[in-house]
Amino acid sequence: MVIAIDGYSSCGKSTLAKQLAKRLGFVFVDTGAMYRAVTLYFLVHKVNITSIADIQSALDEIYIHFENINGENTTFLNDENVEAKIRSIDVSQFVSEVSAISTVRTKMVDLQRKMANQTGLVMDGRDIGTVVFPDADVKFFITADPQIRADRRYREATSKGQNVSLQEIMENLKHRDHIDTQRADSPLRQADDAILIDNSHLTIDQQFEWALTIIQKNQRSL
For the stretch 138-170, what's the b/e string if a residue is b when 16 or more beta carbons lie within 10 angstroms of its beta carbon? Predict the structure, then answer.
């Protein structure tokens, strides 16, 4: 069974995906973390993103995998734990540009599909239900009011000691939304058969219980 979760930045897609994977005993794949890991590599190695040759050469040197550490899904880039580094504001400001590069998306989609050789999979991102797994058993599209999304991201960032302002967060979200929805390759959009969840005024638990109920109904019909 494949569960696809798409939606805007800072809507809690990964939180929901982790909850569902844990309850159902499925594998969780954080595709956003994969693109963030690529972005981190490009920043560290000063990859010229206007050069297809340079991008391809860099991608050939990138290996991404996930490990469960103390109950948390942790991202590894070339065997280095980069979970903290990929959540930095520097990566956040650049990840949408990197994600819009077709060469990058082609490699990431190929890796994501290979990860589906499991008994069950929960994957979140921007194009999971539309491109990566168009035949997913259940699809969700998550959204929320932009101000609420910015407040959530600000609280998360400051709790981790990051020195950012709410205005910086808001501008970053607007910037990412624009690129994510307007890019030529696999833009963010709600799949025709995706279930919309606006969690502006839902708690994390309310969203989880709602989504779980829908999945369990779908399981019974398979």
Answer: bbbbbbbebeebbbbbbeebeeeeeeeeeebbb
Q: Examine residue 222 and state whether it is found in any structural domain, yes or no.
A: no
Say whether pLDDT at 222 is over 80.
no
Which of 168, 189, 100, 177 is closest to 146 using CA atoms? 177
pTM of the model: 0.81
pLDDT tens-digit series, residues 31-67: 999 999 999 999 999 999 999 999 999 999 999 988 8
Range of the domain at 40: 2-215
> Do residues 47 and 55 make contact, with C-beta atoms less than 8 angstroms apart?
yes
The span from the CA of 216 to the CA of 205, in Å, is: 16
